[in-house]
Amino acid sequence: MLFGKGAAFYLTGSTAILSDALESVIHLFATAGAALSLWYAAQPPDPQHPYGHGKAAYFSSGFEGALILAAAVGIFVEAGRALARGPELTHLGAGVAITGGLALVNLALGVSLVRVGRQTRSLVLVANGHHVLTDMWTSLGVLLGIGLVWITGLTWLDPVVAMLAGANILWTAGRLIRNAYAGLMEAADPADTSRALEALRAAVDDGRLAGFHHLRHRRVNDVVWIEVHLLLPDELTLEEAHRRASSVEADLGALFPGDRVQATTHLEPASHEHPPELGNEPVEDALG
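Structure (tokenized):
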């Protein structure tokens, strides 16, 4: 990709194609970082990291977003210079052919990376796939701009198209950085909260639980961590209380097919500090 786009820029002198090539340079470094992060995130827990190494994926996503942001800044700088001095374009047909072929390759690669990343809950692969697709959309924008220049002879359209490509890259960078921040700060997914509450309330309705409170959960890639306090009738034996808690944990695990669920429950007698009806309290109380 990098050499192909470099050749297209050398032939045409197009700032728009240069913007496309510049993003490929950034993607080269981002992919190397993603590969390292993917390997490290897959390492098993150890005494220093008992919860595993999955958060490395969020660092990778943020790093990739920062690199894309740098590429966008470079594109705006080069486009501004081209507008100031006036573009000089040659061999536009060859540039269109090369850029179009590479865009098709990026489309196939990006879709594949995103699909596999979602199947495996790998933020690294999803982020890298979105980067590839951003590269593809950038190439399509460049093709449109070069085509208009070719047809109309308006060379000033070339740096304008480069700026539009830079704006699209900025949007992708912001999304990757935002997702990385949410993962590092362990932001709770409202959809996951609703599913967990539904399962717990079902256990209250069928009599397995007298109530629940202090529900907490977080996700790190394909691992979902759930903690909750379960209220059980005072007269239960320890064996029966354990059986009911295990069945509730199994229900919580079944809510997230394809994920590894680590559910930790704390058992309390229903008469201890909290009334039995706590299983039906508002969401904000259940999460408190």
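Residues 2-184 form a domain with the Alpha-lytic protease prodomain-like fold (CATH 1.20.1510.10). The longest helix spans residues 56-85.
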